[in-house]
Description:
globular, alpha+beta, single chain, 7 helices, 3-stranded antiparallel beta sheet
Amino acid sequence: MKKIGIILTAFITITLSCKDKKESNTENKTASEVQPAGAGADASFSSTSTGAAYLAYQELRKALVVSDAAAAQKAADRLSQALEDEQSEAVSITTSMAATSDLEEIRNLFSVLTASLDPLFREALAEGEIYQQFCPMAFEGKGGYWLSDKEEIRNPYYGDKMLTCGKVTEVITQ
């Protein structure tokens, strides 16, 4: 009986912490339908290559939001091409992402990629805002961060399963 109580408490906690305020069905929608490319904060960067990398990163994030592995692979490939040689770790990660069609593997790599690119985007941000967001439920409760061009939460780790699970942990500005 005690075990059932613990399980029930955990279920309620998860449900309340990540419950969508509005029912939102993203199934069969493209990344741009869920979050239009022009929506959100406009960020500009001190280098054109970093700006291109940021746009490709956002494209990748949006593909994960709608659980589109093929679009995520394409975005990862574009991101890999946009990154400069100094970002060898990020290039390696994006190359691995582009080579797999396993959505969960791409999501795992996306978390590592975010940690790798965070300093680059912070340092090169010249104008605008980037929203650092966090889902406490990702990766079996370890949590996962991502960077967004929009304050509204659209979770790349769960897609429509827990679309709005997460919170803004920092607004990055210049």
